[in-house]
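Task: complex structure prediction.
Instruction: return structure tokens for all chains below.
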Amino acid sequence: MPGPIQSLSRAAAILRLLAGGERRLGLSEVAASLDLAKGTAHGILRTLQQEGFVEQDAESGKYQLGAELLRLGQSYLDVHELRARALVWADDLARASGETVYLGVLHQRGVLIVHHVFRPDDTRQVLEVGSMQPLHSTALGKVLLAYDPVARGELGDGPLESYTTRTLTELSDVDAECALIRERGWADAVEETWEGVASIGALIQDRRRNPVGAVCISGAVETVCEDGFVKPSLVASVRSAARAISRDLGAGRF
Amino acid sequence: MPGPIQSLSRAAAILRLLAGGERRLGLSEVAASLDLAKGTAHGILRTLQQEGFVEQDAESGKYQLGAELLRLGQSYLDVHELRARALVWADDLARASGETVYLGVLHQRGVLIVHHVFRPDDTRQVLEVGSMQPLHSTALGKVLLAYDPVARGELGDGPLESYTTRTLTELSDVDAECALIRERGWADAVEETWEGVASIGALIQDRRRNPVGAVCISGAVETVCEDGFVKPSLVASVRSAARAISRDLGAGRF
DNA sequence: CCTTGCGGTCGACAATGTCGACCATCAGTC
DNA sequence: GACTGATGGTCGACATTGTCGACCGCAAGG
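Output:
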């Protein structure tokens, strides 16, 4: 495979840099962070700016991400076939289970949330579409790890970050857990990322049985678990939703 | 100002092209649409793909937008100062008015929705964050047209699209309306874009009085209007919310 | 079995993006 | 108020880099 286009890779790196840092970044900071000449960084930023991917604060001169990214991100969702077919099933699942529903796909080293149905009570909740969750400590992530070799590859050999005392941080433990998940066909994660939160996830596959994403429900330990284990009835609901979505995807082409 | 970076502009054009067309596009289609050599288009696509901005359907070989865009779009929202400060006020406004609340900023030739609070009843609604609304036929758009010279400039001299029989399609009419809006300090749009929908909007400005966005409420004509005019009490709510957000923004720096 | 379309590769060429010195401006400071 | 040290931004020479169009292999369709 021939090499990538240098200026484009650099532009992408700049966007990621701006996305990462909380605050706006100055030209010099950007150039220094990526080891570019100021002139070069400026040229890229100027172009990104006039394309709308980056905006410049009028008075400080510093740069931040631009509105066009939001628009394109929305377009991504519009085209996303998995999401489109899952919308109605996710709704049903939320209603049936009374819990929050997430739909996620593998993206880089994590799970990208592409759909989110609020828990059907009236508590205030923030939409998490577009945010990322870790692979090794969430139901969505562990499902993907268990079934998608690419996801397992992303884990590499690096140390796994620990979020709570129940987070699995040893690769061998994760692999054992994945074997279990494959055997029984679903994953759970009880207080492995957030205290008090438990979730149950299952795989979504396309017509050729390739893993393409995962659904999960997520809620308070008290409502999702019973006697220290996740409720079998909820597991059944999640698995049935996952099967329904997979079937729907499979039918997509005919 | 020196020229933009060619490859970057082209990459942006490809992304916009992919965002525009509903379906996935093949390499040749992309190359033809933008009048590029196939090799060139391929190089750009390849780079965009490995950066995650574009994905390729494994079996058809066609391209579509990538997940990274969703993630970056979300990051844009996270950094967005106007949105951050407006969140709580928008919530209050929705509760007080009982209607849907939108928060929009000028982007290219339209209004980009950066925040959306659902109407506080239980009807099913879809999140419109990231989508665009026309300038000349919505309350948000007309507010920006009235106060932001850049917005007025975007209108150019082109013919204005008509959505309903009440859409203003003559530039002179729009300008007259804008004068009125400036005079009284708020805008409305009753069935100018969607039949049965009325909205009321007001300007948000930063500490230096620059227009930075607009808030509006939007709902059924029957609940927003009375005797053929928008209800004064709703106008008051919207204007008060807009002032609150502006004040909040102004205080941001101190 | 040839044709026609597809996505993808290759290598020569020169247009293109890159680099680093340079400029203008502002804020702080002695 | 001139100095200092930041900043964002410009410029033009250079050669790296992206571009182009011919070419490849494959699959579908006549």
